[in-house]
Design a protein that fits this description.
Layout (H helix, E strand, L loop, with lengths): L5 H15 L3 H23 L2 H18 L9 H22 L18 H19 L3 H12 L4 H8 L3 H27 L8
Keywords: DNA-binding, Sigma factor, Transcription, Transcription regulation
Organism: Myxococcus xanthus (strain DK1622)
InterPro entries: RNA_pol_sigma-70-like, RNA_pol_sigma-70_dom, RNA_pol_sigma70_r2, RNA_pol_sigma70_r4_t2, RNA_pol_sigma_r2, RNA_pol_sigma_r3/r4-like, WH-like_DNA-bd_sf
Amino acid sequence: MSGVPAQDEVRLQALVRRIQEGDLTAFEQLYALTQADASRTLWHLVGNRVDVEDLLQEAYLRLLTAVKSYRGESRFRTFFYRVCSNVALSHLRWKRRRPEDSVWDLPEAVAEGDDPERVASRRQAARLVELALERLKPKKRIVFVYYELCGMSPDEIADAVGSSPNTVRSRLHHARLEFNEAMQRLLGANRSGGFHGAT
């Protein structure tokens, strides 16, 4: 969804109309078209691979109900990201009350013949990013992920999270500062041998 071409957006809107008319095969097609991006986005939002499948299921269950009220005022991906952010926010709030160890297994396809060193390096970079993201408060994390990793504009994000564009820009500014600071600390710890997230 993060890089949805215009024709895909038109296709998604057509599927939504069919779902609203009670065609559940259209929902299966919508799921097939959006599931990989939704899974990746939720992974970035919540950071714990074990939870992603459950959250993905919850997001689509909520979507099935929410889609009835979708009128096409915003792009479908913005509408769906609103559902994902609500699911992620509930989870992150719950997780803060009940901390646990994260499981590091970024859902990515490794191409056959990929250099193992490059794969290991990519995984370590992903782990560092995830650790830095975990240091952000939930609302800042969602804004940061949607802007930096999903390519959404502040206006789209504002629509997706139910906030104003100015609030989004402010959160994004603070999130970037905090993220960069966390990355510097983690990279410093990694160089001095104090980072254990990659093991």
